[in-house]
Amino acid sequence: MDYKLTRDEPKRFTAAFNFLSTSKNAKHDDVKLEASFLTLGDLPIDAVEIAARTLSRESNSFMPDDGTWYETADNIAAETLVKHTENARYLTAPKIEEEEKSKTLTARKAFVKLYESFAKKSLPWTHNWKSSDVQVMTFHCSACSDSGWLNGECVTDNLCPSCRQKKQRMYSHGYVYRCRCWETNPLLEARRASAKLSYRRKTNTR
Fold it and tell me: In this structure, is residue 45 part of a structural domain?
């Protein structure tokens, strides 16, 4: 999706507005156009255009109000964000998984060779150690395992945020803090996008 905002694309919005009003045989003027432009200005222009086409196919002859157009475009923008973040979530995982599988199989073969040399016997080809099936768990962030959080220990030379704010520490205790991948981890972005879409669907009801 084109993430240019509607307020930065007045010509494209005007074309979408004219298309929608024409499809409904609705009269409009510059005042209505300006009001709609201001209302929808903070949404991606692509979502606004798709929403206009969607609303034009509804079986009525009324020009939809700006609130309806906004809600439709808002839902489309949220759904598109979920799709994009879900795709990004899996972009690097397959490559990482294949690399880890290769390393694991190489290490396994070396171990079996060494074991057979010391044991003076060969393991059957059906033995688990000779299997080429490797299950690898991969993460975008190895530090937090894609949870977004890390465990810390509040001690004298490393106070937790709460103790730093209070400027005192009563005793050593554990605490959790956000991992540095919080804003950029594709999996966490996908979770936030899904939560946002769920919220939008609940609030944007017509």
Answer: yes
